[in-house]
Amino acid sequence: SGWLTRQARKMGVRIEPEAIDLMGFYMGNNTRQLITELEKISTYVVSGQPITTNDVDEMSGGFNATNVFELADKVGQQNYVAAQQILHAMLENGEEPRRILPMLTRHLELLSKVLNFNGQRLSSAEMANKLGVSPYFLKNYREQARKFTGEQIWNGLGILLDADRLLKSRNRSQHGNILQFSLMELCHL
Length: 189
Fold this sequence. Notes:
Blueprint: H1 2-10, H2 17-27, H3 31-44, H4 53-61, H5 65-76, H6 80-92, H7 97-118, H8 124-131, H9 135-145, H10 150-169, H11 175-187
């Protein structure tokens, strides 16, 4: 994330930590694609304003990532009621269920990595760097990871894999129900 911040600075723009994380979610670690996307977004942003998650959404994502981040966060907190409300609103707004699963998977994978790093003596900056997230979010990931065992996270990843298979093999009319059931299982690990 420091690398992308420096690239943005070279282009004469600032980028918020959340926007960096979102770009990483959309494009992974493909540096060429990240630079191309950053150039595209920087021409779109009002001069002097930082690049935000909304900017990244509009130019790169095609879906409301703020809601997906909130949904993943509620799953990490095991807050079923709030997660269900967010999911329902997302589906009502036409969100594609198959685009939601990768973000939930990524979130559980990050929590698993946090659990693995907890035994090591890493500074917050080192851990954030190894996770590939902004240090701004690290405290939240650490708090959520404490709520899970490695086995629970593994089971959660299995639930998401099963949901992905079902979404690929079932009628679109069933997708919302599949996702809602999976969410219930995730929040009650």
